[in-house]
């Protein structure tokens, strides 16, 4: 049997890692465990997963939905929540933007973080 390799986290690019880490701390309640001008990292509950952010001064946000000749989304983050209305208010208060195009009418909301990374908040079962 081949050894399974767990995913420990994802790395996002941003012009200012510290500022984006503050956004995700406010949105998720995760602890910032590393914080400097070129790299920041948040750790989820009980070390479940990590979001790292590296400095990329030429970061361009993706188009959502995709458009020809524009930076396309390479991936997005999904977060399961229990109250969509409350989570949406929390996301917007932290600095997220509700995306204009929402492919589902209920159960899921799509946002962009302050530098344009797309993420979804969804209810269990969606």
Automatic annotation (TrEMBL):
InterPro entries: Glyas_Bleomycin-R_OHBP_Dase, Glyoxalase_6, VOC_core. Pfam families: Glyoxalase_6. It comes from Kribbella voronezhensis. Keywords: Dioxygenase, Lyase, Oxidoreductase. The keyword Lyase applies. Residues 44-69 are annotated as: Disordered. This is Catechol 2,3-dioxygenase-like lactoylglutathione lyase family enzyme. Residues 6-124 form the VOC domain. One of its GO terms (molecular function) is lyase activity. The keyword Oxidoreductase applies.
């Amino acid at each position: 049997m081949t050894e399974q390799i767990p995913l420990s986290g994802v790395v996002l690019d941003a012009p200012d890692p510290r500022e984006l880490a503050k956004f995700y701390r406010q949105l998720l309640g995760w602890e910032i465990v590393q914080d400097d001008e070129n790299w920041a990292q948040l750790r989820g509950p009980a070390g479940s997963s990590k979001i790292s952010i590296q400095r990329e001064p030429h970061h361009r946000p993706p188009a959502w939905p995709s458009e020809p000749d524009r930076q396309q989304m390479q991936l997005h983050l999904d977060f399961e929540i229990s109250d969509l209305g409350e989570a949406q208010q929390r996301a917007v208060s932290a600095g997220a933007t509700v995306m204009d195009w929402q492919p589902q009418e209920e159960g899921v909301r799509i946002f962009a973080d302050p530098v344009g990374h797309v993420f979804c908040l969804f209810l269990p079962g969606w």
